[in-house]
Amino acid sequence: MRLGILSDIHANYEALSAVLEAFKSESIDRYYCLGDTVGYGGSPNECADVVRGLVEATILGNHDAAVAGRMDYSYYYEAARNALDTHAQLLSEENMVWLRGLPYQVRLPEHNVQLCHGSPVRLEEFEYIFAPEQARECLPMYEELGHLTLIGHSHLCKVFALTRNSVEELPPIDFDLHPDQKYIVSVGSVGQPRDYDNRASYTVYDTDKKRFEFKRVEYDIETAADKVLRAKLERNFAHRLFIGV
User: Fold this and answer.
1) What are the helix (H) ranges across the chain?
2) pLDDT tens across 3-12, in order?
3) N or C end of the chain: smaller count of CB under 10 Å?
4) Distance (Å, rounded) from C-alpha 146 to C-alpha 24?
């Protein structure tokens, strides 16, 4: 089975549309979203509508939780808070109900895969994993981890290979899973990449071949940025799309 994994769309409909078009050539059997469908961008309802109709399961992201009233985000910086407040006002009742019901994690036992937004250690804290020392915090729960744990949140493509007492960071390129290791993979961001590559990021996992693949696709950044500006959100949310940061 081929799983299409995407994350951190952040209300960027143009990026999401390009990713879904690219997925058409990947023979995907099921889609999963690792969270943050909303936040930052200009199309929260359009993206939520698409994701709701497409994926097998969606994980709760921190921006989703904030918009849905499931976490305190008063400590976020002002521009991010304003975007979340705006999205909370814009979202349809159907999409708001959907966000309020999203889970913190989903396990796919038939594939030995675990899905969450941030670190699996403290799910409700939405902690980052983008460095080996952060992945190392998962070692005490090694037996509980799936063969493959897929996360978003950092907007970076990262791969960490774990044994019971070690963590090794691998390059974020296509790879085959070794049966004697477990893996934590950060899948990057559809709508707001932060690795200085402005193309939308998406991934594929072939459960039969045990092969994980990273993908990138160009999209209409100009239109996505214009929607941010027309929504009167922070101008930098538009500008950063062009440089991928």
Assistant:
1) 13-23, 44-54, 62-67, 78-90, 93-100, 132-136, 221-230, 235-243
2) 999 999 999 9
3) N
4) 27
